[in-house]
Amino acid sequence: MADVTDWQIERMPTGIPGFDQVTNGGLPRNRTAVVAGTAGSGKTILALQFLVMGLRKYDETGVFVTFEESPEDLIHNVRSFGWDLAGEVEKKRLAIVDATPEPGDVQIESGAFDLSGLMARIEHAVREVNAKRVILDAIGALFPQFTDPNLVRRELHRIGAGLRKLGVTTLMTLERLDDDGAVGRFGVEEFVADNVVILRNRLDQEKRRRTIEILKFRGGMHQKGEYTFTVDADEGVSILPLSAIELKQGSSNKRVSSGIEELDRMCGGGMYRDSIILVSGATGTGKTLTVAHYINAAIQAGERAILFASEESREQLTRNANSWGIDFEGAEKSGLLRIVCRYPDIMGLEDHQLQMRREIDAFKPARIAVDSLSAFEKAGTRRSFREFVIGFTSYVKYLEITGLITDTTAMLMGGQSITETHISTVTDTILLLRYVELHGEMRRGLMILKMRGTQHQKDIREYNIDGQGMHIGAPFRGIHGIMTGTPTYMFTREREHLAEMFSPETPPPPPPKI
Amino acid sequence: MIYRLRLFITGRTPHSIRALDNLRSICETELAGRYEVEIIDVLENPGLADIEKILATPTLVRKLPEPVRKIIGDLSDREKVLLGLDVYSTHHENASIQTGKE
After folding, report:
1. Residue A112 · residue B73 · CB < 8 Å
2. How far apart are alpha carbons A12 and A104 in whole angstroms?
3. Radius of gyration of the CA atoms of chain A, in A
4. Which of A26, A36, A135, A319 has the smallest C-beta neighbourhood within 10 Å, fewest atoms?
5. Membrane spanning segments where (chain A) (predicted)?
């Protein structure tokens, strides 16, 4: 690699989704790295995935040394990921070294010894399949087999050096007792000091939260802090990097229609193509209708759109769209629209995010809508929701496509929600839909709160919903406090008086307290 | 009773040579005429080491009489080797009878 200077250690791309991003390129090539974590944190899966991805993506063969689980159990356990280890062994692309203790085996120590036998077997396996990747699973299980932990530590060190001579990249897994504190048991941290990856599996407000942290890579940069990851049947471990893809996206001046003509005019000619639009409003203000218009605009332009629905079923959505004269069913049949209905509670937010990314990758839409994003709040803790929102929106921005998300406010009048506070900074355009109680009547008001990179109208406009959808009418006059939910009336003369004070233009509405 | 033994070593290291010497001495004095020993160099025959799941070398494996026993190290602690091979106990019994104790 041309951009790698001499003092930096070359990296080996692992092929594990997200891992190469958070490590800035993969594992240090021809070195040993340790993955430490508590029981059930995903160490073995990550290590095996390192081997499997090597075989699949880079045609790099591997050796798998197991100290804890029998090879039969391991082969069986990972079959659900679609990893056929037995088949790879038959094809001589994978070799397994079984270093598990024999059950009921009595071993007596008499005099000095070392673990050259193990090293010789590993070396033999590496040569047999011409391996580039080696994993040593659960090195902690080696310690109880011998009386002297110092000897095991020393020998592990020697094995590490031996593997380096063989030119392979090694991943060792090591059990920890606790998510915090010492890297591993048996004082191995001294010897593992060079490259350490930590996996955690914390219980956070009754939800499991898996994270990965690159603690250190000697002689190289990597992303700092914890990143969430999920383990699922399709790919195994998938890491969801947040900052890794943030703020690298370009910016486009191309505008697209929101599907509502008057709204486009208010925005100065439509939405930017690579922007995130947040539509916020109480129940029944017309958020789903805004989504329908927005999707319809894509369909009319012959572009693909994907709709993630978290509150309504497919039937409800298509029926409602039909009532506004928008044909979702036909668009789905012609391949321009894909509707994904998934209730938020069925899985964790990390899994939701992963599934959404996969569907976006598979369908390649020009527009994405999520109705509603706030429904996902229930499915995780505040922190994981925040990460979900940021992860999802930054992915949409990274793809340079248009994203529209809706947010249901808790209060009927005015109000704000967690979603709003979380994502107002990552959104480019915020559209507020509010109920306005006026002379004993419930009416609806719409306002563009913010629109990045362009001028927009600042009026609060009244709108109506009928069989053709949304119609935006005239601005409210002589009334303020709409957005805070406590409107008060002004006398016309007073308003005109104010207008003169701030001439030449009509005064903007009072800043909403958001 | 025949003792069938296998000694796994890795090349001609000091550990290996000491283990060979110690084993020869033990066999000649304690198991004369009733032992078979096979010396296996793991570097030359890693397949057999895989089958016996050898990690440490030197390792002495007692194949017969069953159950299989493993004694690791250069066999310099003679008492432990005899204990591991179950030779010591019979020897000890004889000694007890001779001294008239139980």
Report:
1. yes
2. 40
3. 29
4. A319
5. none
Non-local CB neighbours of A37 within 8 Å, separated by 6+ positions: A43, A173, A174, A175, A176, A198, A199, A200, A201
CA distances in angstroms from A49 to A79, A82, A469, B79, B100, listed in the order given: 12, 11, 50, 47, 67
The pLDDT tens digits of the residues spanning A9-63 come to 889 999 998 899 888 889 999 999 999 998 888 999 999 999 999 999 999 999 9
Q: Give the separation between CA A506 and CA A443, rounded to whole angstroms.
A: 23
Token look-up 């969430």 returns: A228
Q: Judge residue A444's burial from the number of C-beta atoms within 10 Å of its C-beta, 0-12 exposed, 13-18 middle, 19 or more buried.
A: buried
Pairing mode, if any, of strands A441-451 and A461-466? antiparallel
On whether any CB of chain A is under 8 Å from the CB of B27, the answer is no
Alpha carbon distance A305, A482 (integer Å): 33
Extract the tokens encoding A479: 């009334």
pLDDT digits (tens, 9 = 90+) for A329-387: 999 999 999 999 998 888 888 889 888 988 998 999 999 999 988 888 888 888 788 88
Q: Do B84 and A110 touch (CB under 8 A)?
A: yes
Cβ-defined contact of B53 to A100 (cutoff 8 Å): yes
Beta-bridge partners for A305? A337, A367
